UniProtKB/TrEMBL annotation:
This is Fatty acid desaturase. The chain crosses the membrane at residues 48-70, 76-96, 108-128, 162-188, 230-260. Coiled coil: none annotated. Residues 75-334 form the Fatty acid desaturase domain. Keywords: Membrane, Transmembrane, Transmembrane helix. It comes from the Bacteria. The lineage of its organism: Bacteria, Pseudomonadati, Pseudomonadota, Alphaproteobacteria, Sphingomonadales. One of its GO terms (cellular component) is membrane. GO terms for molecular function: oxidoreductase activity, acting on paired donors, with oxidation of a pair of donors resulting in the reduction of molecular oxygen to two molecules of water. It comes from Pelagerythrobacter rhizovicinus. The keyword Cell cycle does not apply. InterPro entries: FA_desaturase_dom (IPR005804), Fatty_acid_desaturase (IPR012171). GO terms for biological process: lipid biosynthetic process. Pfam families: FA_desaturase.
Amino acid sequence: MNMHQSIDSAALARATATVPPKQAIADDKAMLRAARDLTKDLIVAKPAIYWTDMLLSAGLGYAALAGAILVGSMPLAVVLGVVAALSLYRALLFIHELSHIHRDALPGFRLAWNLLVGIPMLTPSFMYEGVHTLHHARTRYGTADDPEYLPLALMKPWSLPLFVLIALLLPFALLFRFAVLVPLGAVIPPIRTIVWQRFSSLSINPQFRRRPPEGELRPRVFWQELGGSVWALALLGSTFLIGWQPLLIALAVFSAAAVLNQLRTLVAHLWENDGEPMTVTAQFLDSVNVPPPGRIAEIWAPVGLRYHALHHLLPSMPYHSLGEAHRRLAAHLGTGSTYEGANHPGMIPLVLRIARSTMRPR
């Protein structure tokens, strides 16, 4: 939804309506069957789209960041900083695709993404791989074992602004992790254990503890952490040559991207589950689609994430196919269907719904 267009009363009513307990929602087998049958021809990832999108996003982002650092005009620097934050944010969100695509689908893409985006932004792919898939596990979603779930709609009102604003500190925390904690952990095993368990995943559940890496993830973790540590130390070392200003500008841009991602995360789900296991349909309805005609969602939820509820039905669907999959399912299932129940008009109504839910007496 475009933020400048008015929100109709029907949309607000849907956004604030009382819903049944999530555990009471049975699976809509017709919807699940349609999601499987109508999208079989859309499941192949197209390398040309992935490579072009990622490279252009990263290239524009770094060019704009360099401009923000080098120009002498403050207004122009701010504009370039915004362009850099939005572009690098889009490039960074390919980490979500890396956690789902088959390892043979895009040869070289994971390595290239880590070298161009993941390590420079101190968010290599191991921080999502092996973690995000737990969020999609049938018996984990919305429970205490889900690393990416908090019942935000059932928490205190102050929890929402805190949830968003804490993202401002993420780039500084990542710099400290890779420049200080990783080298210390290499010589002090207990520090290494704590860092891995608690500070090595893009999770929002403070109770989550990550298990040691296994299989092909283990060597990836080694070289990605080594690359991240070398890069973080180089960033700090650069301040002795060119001063602190370039690094602080870069961290400010990354902080803006992190806050935008946290806002997107805030409205990716309704966060109304109290910890009990849910059916697939209940998980779908607790997740959010923000489909067209609004266009601004493509900025704050890029790389297919505006179809987050649909993604929970079809987690292996390439991001470039989700729009067509949505059109097919919406046309086939029609108005008033379970599928339509996960469609929402935009970020503002979703934030209002969650905020109002935090204010209800319990």
